[in-house]
Amino acid sequence: MSPAASFGERWARDNLDREASPEEIQTLDLFPVTCGGDLAEAAKRARRYYTARGASGLTELWHRSHPDDEDILSSCQDAYIVPLRVRSVGGRRVTLVRLPAPTALDRPLCAHALLSRWLMILDLRLREDPTPGEEVVFIDVCDLQPSHLKNHFRGTYWKDFVWCMKSVYPIRFSEVHIINTQRLKTMSLLLLHIGLYPWRRKIVHIHANGEQINNAMAVDHFPIEGLPYEYGGKAGAMKDLNDEWTKKLLLNSKWLAMENQKFYETELKPQIKRARRKSAVRNICNTNASYDMLTRTHSCRSLYKKEDMEEGTHGAYRTLKVTDRHFHV
């Protein structure tokens, strides 16, 4: 392979048991950027990504849901997930989540359906735009009630999803903003904190009111032309934007199924573990210690004793007998 090969091409050659598609190479080339240029960490993250999407990975979230499943379609009406069409001035992607949606019934929200649909949307958007860029998420909880979160955080769905975004996916979530929390009852707020605890440090930011999104993005700025009406923008209503993504999921259901099957059947080559330098030095020392060493009675002083040596003809080697081995002197 050419020395100028990209990270994705080299990683695929060393780790996959099949030839990678051009789309896969583009996705793999995102890992070094996501890992801040650390190629070793990028290689580990890419391997975790393929493992998570494989047969022994996050099968509940990635492989056991389809866009036309009843619970997925119901989730489309219970919670809005809207990735915005344009990026911020700083090049960051923005996703708006309404949890629950105004059209949601007064019943527990299905965490499995919500997070599986979110992963499908992320995969589709990555296919459309396989370029680097951090992800900023806004979750609006103005209509959240305790009944919506009943058993919502039970199980490992949220924990697995958070781990996936932090340590696995080609795009990393840099910030998660929870807005409109002033209307929440104490129990709802407590459950929300418990569920999002793995994200809490440095990433999750709580906002009491529905302030302008651009105020929460600090020095970055998002064009109002790309924001929904509900947040001071001109891009359309959240419901309409959510319906567009629902249609997009259904239209791409075949592609999503093929992608899942491809990852499910992919086998990774065994990793070649290099011995650490300290271990190598220790092994050398142990090997040297195993040699038969000269005893005290056969020290240099004893070489002058005739009985210890068998004299040969002039110029021949003199042999010093030590145990069963012969050392040439």
Can you walk through the features of this model?
- With 329 residues, the chain is α/β, with parallel strands linked by helices.
- It has one domain (7-265): Phosphatidylinositol Transfer Protein Sec14p (3-Layer(aba) Sandwich).
- The chain has helices at residues 7-15, 22-28, 31-34, 39-52, 59-62, 70-78, 111-128, 157-167, 186-195, 213-216, 238-251, 253-265, 277-289; strands spanning 80-83, 93-98, 135-140, 173-179, 204-206, 309-310, 319-322, 325-328.
- Helix 7 (111-128) links the parallel strand 2 (93-98) and strand 3.
- The longest helix is centred in the middle third of the chain and has 18 residues, at 111-128.
- The radius of gyration is 31 Å and the shape is globular.
- The two termini are 52 Å apart.
What's a quick, concise take on this entry?
GO terms for molecular function: phosphatidylinositol bisphosphate binding. The protein is 40% helix and 11% strand.
Descriptive tags:
single chain, 329 residues, 3-stranded antiparallel sheet, 13 helices, 8 strands, disordered C terminus, CRAL-TRIO domain-containing protein, phosphatidylinositol bisphosphate binding, CRAL-TRIO_dom_sf
Give the secondary structure arrangement, pairings included:
Blueprint: H1 7-15, H2 22-28, H3 31-34, H4 39-52, H5 59-62, H6 70-78, E1 80-83, E2 93-98, H7 111-128, E3 135-140, H8 157-167, E4 173-179, H9 186-195, E5 204-206, H10 213-216, H11 238-251, H12 253-265, H13 277-289, E6 309-310, E7 319-322, E8 325-328
Parallel strand pairs: 2-3, 3-4, 4-5
Antiparallel strand pairs: 1-2, 6-7, 7-8
Helix pairs in contact: 1-2, 6-7
InterPro entries: CRAL-TRIO_dom_sf
GO cellular component, one term: membrane
Protein name: CRAL-TRIO domain-containing protein
